Amino acid sequence: MAPPQPPPAISITDKARKGFQALAANQEKRSAMRKNAETSRYFDGSAPMTRRRRQQVRAYYEVFVQSCYQITAIEEIWDRSEFITRTKEFLEGVTHVAEGKFEEKIKTATLWSYKHALYWWASVLVQDFQTIWHNWHCEVSRHIHMLSVHQSLSLQSWKKNNLSDSELCIIFQHICDQRYGMENLKQHWAAMVMVWLTAARPGSFTVSCGYQAGEPLGVPGMVRDTSSTLRWSDVQFFHMVGGIAVKITFRHIKGYQNPHKDGSLYGNAEKAFTFLPSSGERLEFDLPIILFGIAYQRGLFVQTLEVFVAANQAGRIDQTKPMIIHALNAKLQQLCTGIGLLERNSYYSLRRTAIIEVKRDHGTEKAKDLAFHVASSNSLIYYDNIGFGDLDMGQFRLGGPESVSREEIQKYFSQANLTKWQPIDDEAPTLTQSINQATKDQLREEPEYISREQNLKRLYDETGDQLQELQAAGRIPDNEKIPTGCSVTDGAKLKALSHKYGLDELTKKIEEQLVNRKRAYRSIRLRLRKSIVQELRRKHRATLLESQHQSMRKCSAGGAYEPQILANAAVSGLDHSTTEASLMVEISDSDPSHSDDEDDCVDAEVLERENDASREEPECWTDLESNVQIQIGGGEASAETSEIRKAFLLKWIGMTDTVVAQSNLVCPRCQIDPTMKATEKQRRFTLFRLNTHMRGQTHSREAQLRRALKIDGHTKTSTITCPVCKLPWKGISAFMRHLKVRHADQLWDGIEGESEPEDITDFEGFSDTGDGVMENDGDQVEVED
């Protein structure tokens, strides 16, 4: 019996019918439609990082098959009959070839991610993959489990640490103590407060990988027009009775950044947070003031510009470039190290804290709303990495009076309390200084360091010897001074002279030696620094375990930083650990800004830029008692509260660099020197190069007079009349020798301090480069025939 016929289709309008008929007549569009229909099977609409991972796994798999089976055709590589076996062989091969991040072996999670990536490509490249999908999934899953046990794959992962308001307060004080890079530090503080309050992911307000302007969209020829980041148009300020309020809207949220996904949920996924004027005393966490101060200091409220922008190594921000997501954790880890928190911390440490606190104070549903995971996700249960760890389980299960509150236990086991590093006295080095100094001391014991220093010195000596031979042969003027040392000035001068007088081979050797030397020293320093930090972490972990053991002992009441019942607990080994860390190295009197990466001298200081900050408590806490009751402000904003908020806002805006920046500097003496050329006035220096330039002979009185004589048109053959004794001299060099012998006072030799107005010399009449004419403020310079 034949199956029943389907009901007839409904009729359509004449407009739709004519439209399809016109489309059928357009062969060009039909060809394009056919091409898109065939190529759309390879289109991946997932996130950029997911696409990259899938492309990488496909490349690995195809190279594996080509190497092991000597086949190159795509159809044979993705052959359905061999795909299950080859997949299992490929995953086991990865365990032998790849190296893990934590241990020699990779993690099992890596194999699972490879399996998911292969599934996407198999559904595209394996013919009739649906017929073997179930068997492929079951066998590959069992194979991964077997490999995990048989190969003893790594189980380690990053330790999840949390950052609370205690650590943030110390970080804020550390930022206030900095002397440069304040604009960058202030925007990083705003980011930390924002994440701690809203649990926002870092990619919601900075540019994640693959979301920069110009990144491909997965279709050839199509790229992103703008970067996906938080802009000032998403930050709305309001003036209310109590002060400034702000409403922040996050438009770029992980899992919801593809508006073309099936379902209207993904089309307009935004999260808005409102912050009203705070009536409390902790104004460093008042996000409206923090953001308003940043916008006001930049002098802009342009909606299209980014809130968080890029910065260079010196801390100078670039408002034309958005901040990328990788800049956040690097700066946070640097700040944590500066205050003595050696554990690994990231912005997810702040996000976890926000979700955990909301879950405990307001329930699971509010925590889910704050976390804003994708639908049907169960990730929230893994965010609470504390669980019952900050609860007295004996009192919780057996009942009875509460001896220690949950907040006190949290405070006791926080990073700020367990890993605080206090110097012994006011002259003690900070933790960052100790690490840098230990790195420098160990660097000078490295055989590679010693060998490269000796090779560079031999090159300088060889260059100096050949230059002296050329000078003895008359090919170099006698008045050309050839350096004999290996300081930064001597090294640069030797390299310049060798290039000037044709020693090209030596010049090339010196340049190659300096480049290789810089690269090698950086690698050695990073390796030494990593080992030193790991050793410090080991000591602090030992202290942590000891303190946890000692915390079980009953003690009398004590300070505010510890639970009252545990305040005076004797933690054995803690003082010894901090003392050993502080006395690990002896800080020398060398200049910390001197960097071996930036000069050409031999065996110079090998110090990197450091943060000069103390881990001591703020001065305003020194006179406080051990137990202090703090009255939290509330209710309507009073005039006094408004004045306090205003004072903090002005203080926040006024937090600027107190010293010169580290790069992109101009010489102030060049700017006011009329004999310097315009190109010299525009020259840019790093801080170290500027100091070297200022200490050199460029701005000496002799060099200034030589430049002035050249501006006036004098050469080595022209006649110059001395304005003091009226004697003529031929050439600039002869005239300057005459001044050194007969009129040394005119060169200001031996004169220190400020000159009196009447001490003006007779040489103020040389020409100003600004207009090219002579200003006759002193004696006329006349040339006698």
From TrEMBL:
Q: Region Disordered: start and end of each range?
A: 750-785
**Source superkingdom:** Eukaryota
Q: Where is the composition biased (Acidic residues)?
A: 751-762, 774-785
Q: What is this protein called?
A: Uncharacterized protein
